[in-house]
Design a protein that fits this description.
With about 300 residues, the chain is of the alpha/beta class. It has eight helices and eight strands.
Length: about 300
């Protein structure tokens, strides 16, 4: 049974189980230990599962213990531990790093994936507290994870990988009307990542940015739409139908970034929805629609 640490008062070290098969399996992430925040579902979970398939052991997190418990059931024994963590609180993220080290002996990769979005509102109808919460989770959470992981890597004098998550609002010309908080955080995270990469360019720590593209997660759900969303619903659904991809596409890029491929590199930016990919999805849309190959389920 994978380890779950439901709150910080109960954090304790555990002896990880290692299968004899591990010695015969050579994955891209063999013997690496990774923390992936916001990883009990969606993109984060896909990344965690891809890391485990490549030989890593992972610590998955959520703000809710029930989500952590449910997600852990899908991981092979000894490959995953779980923590409840509010990434907007630095002390909890710092203890998350400590927990990974106590549980698996080290830390090699930290993925700042946890993120939320604001409801589909214009700014005058938005709720200031909700808007601020998006900043706290997305932007401050990425800062907290990057700071805590970087401190560990530098203290140990060892190489490490920090992967921050881009999104709509990151790329030039990517406007985000009605989700201004989310778009602002993704633009800021890109700037932040490049700044940290430059600050520590003379260290063996790789600081990178991953754009997962458009994925059908809870954040793109159209259940209980706001009035503004109802007005935009037809357009929004068509955009998602054209450009949405399964989270496995981003997970493959995350594995690449976490592997030896990025050794000696920093400031790397990879996108699951680059210009060529967009053209391919746009061109194939009519054929996918006619053949019923558009998958509309959430991940």
């Amino acid at each position: 049974m994978p380890s779950i640490i439901p709150n910080w008062a109960q954090c304790s070290a555990s002896k990880p189980y290692r299968s004899r098969l591990t010695a015969f399996f050579v994955g891209k992430l063999n013997d690496r230990v990774a923390v992936i925040t916001g990883s009990t579902r969606g993109i984060g979970r896909a990344i965690a599962e891809a890391f485990v398939r490549e030989g890593a052991r992972v610590v998955i997190t959520s703000g809710r213990s029930a989500n952590v418990e449910a997600a852990l059931q899908g991981f092979p024994e000894g490959t995953a531990a779980g923590c409840v963590c509010d990434v907007s609180r630095y002390d909890e993220v710092e203890r998350l790093v400590q927990t990974a080290v106590q549980t698996f002996g080290t830390l090699d990769i930290f993925v700042n994936n946890a993120g939320i979005t604001d409801p589909f509102f214009n700014i005058t109808d938005s709720d200031p507290e909700t808007w601020s919460r998006v900043i706290d989770v997305n932007l401050k959470g990425s800062y907290h994870g990057s700071r805590a992981a970087m401190s560990f890597f530098l203290d140990r004098g060892k190489p490490g990988k920090i992967i921050n998550m881009a999104g709509s609002g990151t790329d030039k010309g990517s406007n985000t009307p009605f989700i201004s908080a989310y778009g602002s955080t993704k633009a800021a995270i890109a700037r932040f990542t490049r700044a940290v990469a430059a600050e520590y360019s003379d260290t063996p720590v790789s600081v990178m940015l991953l754009h997962p593209g458009l994925v059908r997660t809870d954040m793109t759900s159209v259940e209980n739409p706001t009035p503004e969303m109802r007005r935009q619903l037809e357009t929004f659904r068509k955009i998602v139908d054209i450009f949405a991809q399964p989270p496995s596409v981003a997970a493959r890029l995350a594995v690449k970034m976490a592997s030896s491929w990025s050794d000696g590199k920093t400031g790397v930016y990879l996108s699951a929805l680059g210009a060529l990919r967009k053209k391919m999805l746009l061109f194939s849309y009519p054929f996918r629609k006619l053949s019923g190959r558009i998958d509309r389920k959430n991940y």
